[in-house]
Amino acid sequence: MNNMINSPVIVALDNMTLQASLALADQLDPALCRLKVGKELFTRCGPDIVKALHQRNFEVFLDLKFHDIPNTTAQAVLAAAELGVWMVNVHASAGLEAMSLAKQRLLDNNLDTLLIAVTVLTSMDSEVLLQTGITDRLDAQVSRLAQLTKQAGLDGVVCSAQEAKTLKALCGQDFKLVTPGIRLADDNTDDQKRICTPSQALLDGSDYLVIGRSITQAIDPAAKLQTILQSI
Ligand SMILES: O=C(O)c1cc(=O)[nH]c(=O)n1[C@@H]1O[C@H](COP(=O)(O)O)[C@@H](O)[C@H]1O
Asked: Coiled-coil intervals in this record (predicted)?
């Protein structure tokens, strides 16, 4: 495992077969980014994809966003951490008990895998949130779920970089902020609603930038990663 990476970039391997994701990984340098395996790739390939990326010296964020009853959530987090991944996640809306139990299960098994929780997805705006029955302001809901996550003893949250400043002030410097919805000014926004540039996200307190299509759909993904790293 490479624990010397100081790059904040996590490249999301979405919209790809096993072969395509490994071909992309082979173009990237594990000293310059971590990789994120999400629901699509994991459902296609299972733990083999994680093993293949570990063999290439990448640290892996296994993004399966568990959201279930406490025991099921905790056992799923344990199973994910046992794959040796760097970071795993749950939905904060699974609740305090589910998050606390998941964290405790990692500690009981001496696993130091980072455990974070998704607050409000970056593809949502206040209108989409309202459709789910949350009548509070979006930023208030993000803050509420971040505080619940901290109370449960997790390592941090997934949020939009637009909320980073507020959450660092609310939850402290050590509480990790993992921010997707990252785009350079001339990138396509796709289905993301709450977006931010890499440099602004870091200035506002993001610890890690999750970047998918801007890199993976670029003609030269390694060059695009370099452009992003140079911009920060
Ligand atoms: O947990 C995540 O990683 C996540 C949370 C969130 O709120 N928004 C979000 O976009 N993501 C993930 O981050 C990645 C963003 O990809 P791009 O929009 O292509 O950069 C995708 O893999 C999403 O599943």
From this structure: none
Q: Would you say the CB of residue 211 lies under 6 angstroms from ligand 1? A: yes
Assign domain 9-231 one CATH number from 3.30.565.10, 3.30.1280.10, 3.20.20.70, 3.90.980.10: 3.20.20.70
Counting atoms of ligand 1 from 1, which one is nearest the CA of 120? 7
Using CA atoms, how far apart are residues 36 and 12, in angstroms rounded to an integer?
A: 5
In short, whether 192's Cβ falls inside 6 Å of ligand 1 is yes
List the chain pLDDT tens, one digit each, 232 residues.
Answer: 445 688 999 999 999 999 999 999 999 999 999 999 999 999 999 999 999 999 999 999 999 999 999 999 999 999 999 999 999 999 999 999 999 999 999 999 999 999 999 999 999 999 999 999 999 999 999 999 999 999 999 999 999 999 999 999 999 999 999 999 999 999 999 999 999 999 999 999 999 999 999 999 999 999 999 999 999 9
pTM (2 decimals)? 0.96
Complex-level ipTM: 0.98
Ligand 1 atom with least separation from CA of 123: 8
Per the CB < 8 A criterion, the answer to whether 125 and 141 are in contact is no
Report the nearest-CA residue for atom 9 of ligand 1: 180
For residues 31 and 128, give the distance between their C-alpha atoms in angstroms, rounded to a whole number. 38
- Whether 168 has a binding-site annotation, put simply, is no
Is 63 labelled a binding residue? Answer: yes
Residue 121 phi/psi, 5-degree rounding, is -55, 145
Contact 68, 94 (CB under 8 A): yes
Atom of ligand 1 nearest to the CA of 122: 7
